[in-house]
Write a structure and sequence with these properties.
Length: 419
């Protein structure tokens, strides 16, 4: 198992270019299944989750090639509708393929990805929505068989009890080639949903209202291929801003999605960092002292503060003056990184969905293990701002979401090695 050896204490400074978004790439790769022709996805990050998505596409009969920032997917000859258990297990987002396979083939067999790092991740909302669209679903010991008797789903009016990102994406994927109109009420408004819809429109889909709570999809018979550039990764962007603030550095983030990163930018302004955003670039410079955040940081569906950025922001606040309070409202088990941060000298108290961070003067290196993708990134942020050496194990989690992580950190002057 690989690990990072991180020698903390260097101020990070320099310029980096933000990678394409992981959380856009995965549903868009699934969506390419619906297009009868070649799709060229530019700025597709080379990550282990993207490789897993590529393996799923190939096993369904598509031709998917990944090379230097592009994914080229030809789904002209899709021949299968079953994702083997081993591939489902590689990546939790494999569930995103359900709506797309149904939209293309009218039938799909998948298995429920097992327990997760962030707590239970049920798919009840996905299944209930697809049922409304005329999909027959049976669950045989975790193997889910979905079938549309007529071969084509019907449009439906679906009101979500919570704006689930994955459920909204699965409904959209099934609805774009369904018969008639689908309306999603209380839809997720995350920027990655808009990116998926922009891609689908470029393939000929008819979708309105993405980015709002009510999305309306008019089913079309067929989609065609297209060339499309994936949006920048706002969570990776948040991570590099947190890293700069934590190490007292100065950085320019290029290819940044400023509007989409606004919830994060506004929180960072409150820490006393100088932060300026214009022309797809964000400049950040740590102020004389990093200040704790006065208001409770509540993770919420977009446009609220993203749960995916909770851990990395927490790492930046460990050495801030004063006390910051987080409230995690999206996942039940999203403070697993805090044990490692405490081992490094952080003062963090977790009580259910609340975490209280009292600023400390310094952190020290430690032997720690990444618990999940963003938690692992948060540990790297803390390690870079700590005195001494950290051995960070289980970094396959980090490789799921950050392209060339150690190269980027090194280019900013951070001392990091993969072993
Ligand atoms: C996506 C993101 C993930 C992010 C999350 C919330 C991708 C690949 N992943 O995950 O990085 O942290 O959005 O912004 O885009 N829920 C149910 N039943 C369901 C579906 C969801 O109870 O059928 C619950 C989940 O357990 C969770 C909450 O709803 O507590 C939010 O989940 P959801 O928005 O669906 O997140 P994901 O799509 O899994």
């Amino acid at each position: 198992m690989q690990k990072f050896i991180i020698m903390g204490g260097n101020r990070l400074s320099g310029e980096i270019t933000l990678q394409g978004s992981k959380n856009s790439s995965l549903p868009i790769m699934a969506a390419a299944l619906l297009a009868e022709g070649e799709c060229v996805l530019k700025s597709c990050p080379l990550l282990t989750d993207v490789y897993s998505a590529s393996r799923i596409l190939n096993c369904l009969g598509c031709r998917c090639r990944l090379s230097s920032g592009n994914a080229i997917i030809d789904a002209s000859d899709v021949s299968a509708f079953e994702i083997p258990k081993e591939l489902m297990r590689e990546m939790r987002s494999s569930i995103m393929f359900m709506g797309a396979i149904l939209g293309r083939m009218g039938e799909c067999i998948i298995s429920i990805p097992g327990g997760c790092e962030l707590g239970p991740r049920p798919i009840d909302m996905h299944l209930a929505a697809l049922k409304k669209m005329g999909v027959d679903i049976s669950d045989n010991g975790g193997i889910i068989h979905c079938r549309i008797p007529s071969g084509r789903a019907n449009g439906a009016k679906i009101s979500l009890s919570f704006p689930s990102v994955g459920t909204t994406e699965n409904i959209i994927l099934c609805a774009v080639t369904a018969e008639g109109e689908t309306i999603i009420n209380n839809a997720a408004r995350e920027p990655e949903i808009c990116d998926l819809c922009r891609f689908l429109r470029a393939c000929g889909a008819e979708i309105k209202g993405d980015g709002e709570s009510r999305i309306i999809i008019n089913g079309v018979k067929k989609l065609h291929g297209c060339e499309y550039t994936i949006m920048p990764d706002r969570i990776a962007g948040a991570t590099y801003l947190a890293m700069t603030a934590a190490t007292g550095g100065e950085m320019i983030l290029k290819n940044a999605c400023i509007a989409e990163m606004e919830p994060f930018i506004s929180v960072f302004e409150q820490t006393g960092c100088g932060i300026y955003a214009a022309d797809n670039k964000i400049y950040i410079r740590k102020g004389a002292r990093l200040r704790a955040i006065k208001d409770r940081i509540r993770t919420m569906p977009h446009p609220g503060f993203p749960t995916d950025a909770q851990a990395v922001l927490m790492s930046a606040l460990i050495k801030a003056d004063g006390t910051s309070v987080f409230e995690e409202n999206i996942f039940d088990c999203r403070y697993r990184h805090t044990d490692a941060l405490i081992k490094m000298g952080a003062d963090i108290q977790v009580m259910g969905k609340i975490a209280v961070i009292r600023g400390v003067k310094k952190l020290h290196g430690a032997d720690i293990e990444a618990t999940d993708l963003r938690g692992g990134a948060a540990m790297a942020v803390a390690a870079l701002s700590a005195e001494g050496t950290t051995h960070l194990g289980n970094i396959s989690h980090i490789d799921r979401g950050y392209e060339k992580f150690e190269n980027i950190v090194s280019s900013l002057g951070g001392r990091i090695q993969r072993e």
